[in-house]
Design brief:
The complex is a heterodimer.
Chain A: E1 2-3, E2 6-7, H1 16-22, E3 31-34, E4 37-39, E5 54-62
Parallel strand pairs in A: 1-5
Antiparallel strand pairs in A: 1-2, 3-4, 3-5
Chain B: E1 6-8, E2 11-13, E3 17-19, H1 29-36, E4 40-47, E5 65-68, H2 76-88, E6 94-97, H3 110-122, E7 126-131, H4 135-144, E8 150-151, H5 165-174, E9 180-182, H6 188-196, E10 201-204, H7 206-209, H8 214-234
Parallel strand pairs in B: 3-4, 3-10, 4-5, 6-7, 7-8, 9-10
Antiparallel strand pairs in B: 1-2
Classes of the chains: A mainly beta, B alpha/beta.
Chain lengths: ~70, ~260
């Protein structure tokens, strides 16, 4: 699967929560998109990833314009 | 004295200074916010770093309204995607739309901005579109459900000041929404000037981020914006067409 543009070798069947933990992301500070669909925080524990999934994990950064 | 209220998205603000959080050390954010007296701060949404690298949210004081931007979006669809992700981050429903196709001057794509404004306003966002000051587009943004209009003063990050002065004035005169001047303002005097003209608020980032003393410049901007607002509310004195006019009595001179 791809996480933030990088190919990762996780096996299928891990949940979003498990991936976030392994990737060292802070659950409260991120938003997650799976194949361009937003996954709400309530569903992190019960959303299971497949090999072909594309996951984006975003957070706030400093920014004014562009 | 009648209370001067700045209403945005159904919320009331005392400060008319929207502070950017880019291009400077996050550890200075709290001092900058406090010195500026700012109540709204802009943020960008990007791919997350791991938790060991720290998070900007740890540096933003309590009670500050967050205004995420859609920077990085090249069209309406990408802006909508970023806006939805920003709302999912759980910090309210304000969004500043930024859509650029041009990477040299960073000028906003006005047409795509109208499209994104319409889509996001329908989804319940408080939409603040960053735009090139064009009256027709500003009217389209009003109809699309924008909460304010954010015309640029000069290219982003340029510190060049009020290059679009006359066109911003047209928006202030003709558009019933708050006009928040964003981008290009380089000095407190320019922020003051646009507030004197009747702008509802000013947003600044680079002018502060590139200053020698960041919290001090934030303070200077805060004061300039307040001064400009007060001058606007006072009604500026008239300009004499030609010649001078004494302001001291024209009698009682110590001469014959």
């Amino acid at each position: 699967m791809r996480i933030n543009g990088v190919q990762k070798q996780y096996h299928s069947g891990l949940t979003v929560s498990e991936i976030l933990m392994r990737e060292n992301f802070e659950k409260e500070r991120v938003a997650v998109e799976l194949n361009e669909e937003i996954i709400s925080k309530d569903d992190y524990d019960n959303t299971v990833l497949k090999d072909t999934d594309v996951m984006e994990v975003v957070s706030f950064m400093g920014g004014g314009s562009q | 004295m009648k209370q001067d209220r700045f209403m945005l998205g159904g919320q009331e603000f005392q400060s008319r200074f929207i502070l950017g959080s880019g291009k400077y050390n996050v550890e200075l954010i709290q001092a900058a916010v406090e010195q500026a007296g700012a109540q709204i701060i802009t943020l960008a949404v990007r791919r997350a770093n791991s938790s060991s690298e720290g998070n900007i949210m740890d540096f933003i004081p309590e009670g500050i309204t967050l205004l995420p931007n859609t920077s990085g979006a090249r069209n309406a669809q990408e802006a909508v995607r970023i806006a939805r992700l920003s709302r999912e981050l759980g910090c309210g429903n304000f969004v500043k739309i930024e859509i650029m196709r041009d990477s040299k001057y960073l000028l906003p794509d006005n047409q795509e901005t109208v499209k994104a404004t319409e889509l996001l306003a329908k989804e319940g966002f408080v939409v603040l579109p960053y735009m090139y000051p064009d009256l027709n587009i500003a009217r389209d943004l009003v109809n699309a459900g924008a909460a304010a209009v954010m015309p640029l003063a000069a290219p982003i990050g340029s510190n060049k000041g009020l290059a679009t002065r006359e066109f911003i004035k047209i928006l202030i005169d003709e558009i019933d929404l708050p006009i928040i001047v964003d981008a290009g303002i380089g000095r407190p005097s320019q922020a003051c000037e646009v507030m004197e003209m009747g702008a509802a608020a000013v947003m600044a980032n680079t002018a502060i981020a590139t200053a020698g003393d960041i919290p001090k410049m934030a303070s200077a901007f805060g004061k300039a914006i307040e001064a400009g607002r007060e001058a606007y509310l006072s009604g500026l004195g008239r300009v004499q067409e030609s010649g001078g006019e004494a302001s001291s009595p024209l009698t009682g001179f110590l001469r014959d």
